[in-house]
Amino acid sequence: MLVLAFDTATDVATSAVLRDGEVLGERTSSPSTVLEDLDALLRGVDAAPADVDALVVGTGPGSFTSTRIGLAVARGLALALEVPAAGVSTLDALASARDGAFPIIDARRREVFVDGPRAVAPDDLELEHGALCIGSGAIRYRATIERKGAHVPADDDPLHVPRAHLHAALAHEFGSAEEIQPIYVRTPDAKVMQR
Amino acid sequence: MRSDPGLLSLASASAGETEAVAAQLAARLEIGEVVTVSGELGSGKTTFVRGACRALGVVAPVTSPTFTIGHRYHGRVDVSHLDLFRFDAVAMADWGDLEPYFDDAIVFVEWPERGGGSLPAPRVEVSIEHAGQDRRRLRLAAAEPALLEGIE
Predict the structure, then answer these.
(1) Residues 36..75 of A with a Cβ closer than 8 Å to B: which?
(2) pTM, rounded to two decimals
(3) ipTM (interface predicted TM)
């Protein structure tokens, strides 16, 4: 089974191609080039789009637009290739890189996205002493997090960056891409009015 | 001065005085915070935002973004200046365009009423009323009264 996995929810887009669970290729880029990345990954394994059996897409939390870029790509490809898709939380994928890791994604506006999922001020984070904190939010608010007794790996540690092969490993329920919803925990979304 | 905590009412005799009040407020704001600025056409909303921008180190011209919806200025911090006059409400697709202005910036929103209650909660709400000729009545409301203490 050939699987394409990708996540555009954070500033760093990740994409991977896997066959029967084996990682054949993985790329890190920006959300705007995710389709080019997927195309290059397929070419790299001498596969055509028609060979793809399933899609896995990261669902955030992230910015309103970046989470929807991934979802739009997934829906478009699922429709064109007639394949099922699965959604995986970006936080879950980050956390799966290391047992016990606590993922923290930069949510801008002096907030971070954490398990819940929810957006909280870095000062309000409740962290266990010695907890391993990873992700863009952990890097940005390193000082605050370390003051709380938790640990943040070096800024260039790969643990901080989402990896699409981890999304693929977590995907279990495949279905219609239309059913996958972005995770957007900011209040404005809940209050946004219909025109 | 008013006794009502969290509400400050000031008279401004000129655009310069309005800018000076805005400058004092701006100095107390942090990245990620939102200030709404309400008032009729010509009341001086953009003047207020200009005063705040200057205090935050913005040297670029500060003009009303009525037709462009939003400007983002780079001063000592980034400052976003939104004008929702042309909106009836903020639909889902609109929010995708607006959200980046709220990221990593101090944000001033003119015509917040048109946002239909869909904006991030403001730290301060400013309203400006005509009070004859160049005079204006400025009202600043904040959930935390301490934020407005000493502004004159």
Answers:
(1) 63-65, 68
(2) 0.86
(3) 0.76
